[in-house]
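Long-time lurker, first post. I've been practising inverse folding by hand and with some scripts of my own, and I keep getting stuck on stretches where the structure tokens seem ambiguous. Below is the full token string for one chain I'm working on. Before anyone asks, I'm not after the true native sequence, just a reasonable design that respects the backbone. If someone could post their per-position residues I'd love to compare against what I wrote down in my notebook.
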């Protein structure tokens, strides 16, 4: 009787081990598929952008952001493309709606602030930059944008402080270095 109990225990242990391995294989497969999906979306968007079809490229990236796992690079690519080729209102609408789904919402706050800044809503832009920096005080892009906002308002000393902080966070941040030299 004891040997049957031991055999059952071994079988249960083997089954659990196999189930755990299967779960790990499924998890790795899902991660691989997510990376592949992100890569396909990015490539498709780049092709559309090269053809001057920016609205379609933006739509592809938005769909990838909405449906895929969080990918900060994808968020950044979308934000940069929208900064160059979308209206400020479109940026504000998209990134304000993404805050709740983001694992790292500072990037959405940053691009939301960029849309507000482009629209001329300085207080709104500063509020979003404060939110981004409350989440991640080392978000150098938010520091730089805050400097640009202040520079536009003629607050050059305060702008310089933000440019310097951006370069302290990321010493090779060329745009912030150039801004600091200019201010």
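-- Answer (accepted) --
I ran through it position by position. Result:
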């Amino acid at each position: 009787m004891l040997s049957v109990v031991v055999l059952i225990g071994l079988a249960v242990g083997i089954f659990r081990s196999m189930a755990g391995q299967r779960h790990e294989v499924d998890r790795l497969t899902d991660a691989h598929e997510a990376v592949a999906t992100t890569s396909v979306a990015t490539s498709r968007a780049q092709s559309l952008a090269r053809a001057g079809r920016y609205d379609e490229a933006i739509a592809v990236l938005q769909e990838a952001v909405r449906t895929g796992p969080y990918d900060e690079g994808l968020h950044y690519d979308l934000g940069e493309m929208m900064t160059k080729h979308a209206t400020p209102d479109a940026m504000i609408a998209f990134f304000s709606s993404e805050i709740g789904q983001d694992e790292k919402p500072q990037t959405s706050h940053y691009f939301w602030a960029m849309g507000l800044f482009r629209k001329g809503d300085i207080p709104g832009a500063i509020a979003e930059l404060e939110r981004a920096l409350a989440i991640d005080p080392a978000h150098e892009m938010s520091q730089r944008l805050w400097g640009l906002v202040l520079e536009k308002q003629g607050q050059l000393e305060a702008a310089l402080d933000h440019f310097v902080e951006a370069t302290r966070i990321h010493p090779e941040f060329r745009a912030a270095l150039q801004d600091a030299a200019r201010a």
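A couple of notes from the structure itself: The first helix runs from residue 2 to 50. The mean pLDDT is 85. Happy to go over any region you disagree with.
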